[in-house]
Design brief:
By secondary structure, the chain is of the alpha+beta class. 17% of the residues lie in helices and 42% in strands. The N and C termini lie far apart (134 Å).
């Protein structure tokens, strides 16, 4: 009998610790750090013993996380009360701290980094910009930002589609492919390049020569269609009067007329297979594609003709 009693006592001693170990204990921490937008039980407590049931218990949501880089205090009583009706929490032994300070990890984005993003963007787009020295001076940059942890990406949009002349750049931020906020940097973008300028007063109708235009370095960020190559405009005509030192643009220069006022021209008229021609007197200067007034020598009538080339005009009938 004594040996049987000893055996029973021994069995009880062996089985009792195993029975106690089988109960799930949740021991709350005093401090915790999370990375995502929500807090789960495993973030703020140590759960024993390990196993699949424990893992499922640990994934129960308990609260919304604070903003990146911020902290919030949780009281344990509301947390427990919010979980008591869940089947996973049956017979759980709640232990540990009565309050928990939860901090959300974040990644800082400094003003310097924002400006470096703009500089990299301009460098990447240098091939589509005029051949010029780029200078962007920041006037207003947002304060340092705190972003969620994860893979950071961004898209930059200039205030003007062609970049040139932009006064601000907006950075759309994403973390792990999800929007994480926008920031706008305002400043002055300069594109300094050698461009063609008027060396003297250029009057409407003047022909461009190597003496009346020259190259000078200018900020062209606010100039539409500046001209860079002198050889491309030599012999062409000035469309309107410009002062010395003016940066020449594409609309300042036109091709010279191929027909002069008072010049005899050949008028061609065609309708279907019928083709007629006669002589006329140009009453205006005309460039290829323009419409001018021409006096028909045969009929002495004025007609509107399209300029086709030197000495050649056409009319439809």
């Amino acid at each position: 009998m004594r040996s049987i009693g000893f055996i029973l006592i021994a069995c009880w001693l062996l089985l009792s610790p195993l029975s106690a170990a089988a109960q799930v204990t949740v021991s709350f921490k005093a401090n915790a750090v999370v990375t995502g937008p929500r807090i789960v039980l495993a973030d703020i407590a140590i759960i024993q013993p390990p196993g699949s049931a424990t893992e499922a218990l640990g994934q129960l949501p308990v609260a919304t996380a604070p903003a990146p880089g911020k902290a919030k205090e949780l009281s344990i009583i509301p947390v427990i009360n919010g979980l008591r009706n869940r089947p996973e929490t049956a017979d759980v032994d709640w232990q540990g701290s009565q309050t928990i300070v939860v901090e959300r990890a974040g990644v800082p984005l400094s003003q310097k980094q924002m400006q470096e993003m703009i500089a990299a963007y301009l460098q990447e787009n240098a091939s589509i910009l005029p051949k010029a020295e780029l200078r962007f001076s920041s006037i207003q940059t947002p304060e340092d930002m705190m972003l969620p942890s994860g893979d950071l990406s961004w898209k930059i949009t200039p205030s003007r589609p062609g970049i040139v002349g932009s006064t601000s750049f907006t950075i759309a931020l994403s973390v792990d492919g999800k929007p994480a906020g926008n920031c706008t940097i305002r400043g002055r973008l300069e594109l300094v390049a050698e461009v063609l300028t008027a060396a003297t007063t250029l009057r409407k109708g003047d022909l461009v020569t190597g003496e009346n235009v020259g190259l000078q370095r200018h900020n062209i960020s606010g100039i539409d269609n500046p001209l860079f190559v002198k050889e491309e405009i030599l012999g062409k005509q000035v469309a309107r009067t410009v002062a010395p030192g003016t940066i020449l643009r594409a609309d300042h220069i036109v091709l010279p007329p191929v027909i002069k006022e008072g010049e005899m021209v050949k008028i061609s008229a065609q309708k279907g297979s019928l083709h007629l021609s006669t002589s006329g007197l140009a009453k205006n200067d005309g460039r290829v594609g323009e419409t001018i007034s021409v006096k028909n020598i045969s009929s002495n009538k004025m007609i509107h003709c399209r300029v086709d080339g030197p000495g050649m005009v056409s009319v439809e009938f």
